[in-house]
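Q: Structure tokens for this one, please.
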Amino acid sequence: AEVKSRLFSRVEVIGGRGSALGQFNKPRSVALDLEDNLYVVDMTGRVQKFSPRGEFLTSWRMPETDVGKPKGMCTDTRGNIVVVEPHYQRVNHFAPDGALVEQWGRAITNGGSLVLPRAVAINSRGEAFLSEYTTVDRVQGFSAEGRLPFACCGTTGDRDGQFSRPEGLAFGPDDRLYVAD
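A: Here is the predicted structure, written as tokens:
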């Protein structure tokens, strides 16, 4: 389609509404891998993979969806697809073919450190940063090895260093973390 944009030279629409392969039911997050394949997670608890040309390649389901649906996603430094499950207070790392290679996180009420995580971003060192909100409005950093919390920032509010429902996270090329709330 022809686009009049200062940022994009073209727009391509893939999929449509539905539950069949290549279709979406309320898409929640997207991520690109190093080969420009597109991953989409939707409210069915399904992750779908598309080629750079928009062709459906494969899909897989999240481990559980009874309590809630997946939300944020990104890629990690190993090329895995990382998907957050807010209501299970955990983070899943899937190989590009959908095999689960790592799962971590626990609810703070169960001796863990997560409260309804919403988004995830991985820096160049493999450290994971999660945004959270409900009883807290914060961003936490977790080590690449062992996934131990090592940083926490933010409180509830609208001033510098405060958040109101932090949701989107991304790292710039200089490893600076950007937070959208």
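A few notes: The two ends are 32 Å apart (CA to CA). The first strand starts at residue 27 and ends at 32.
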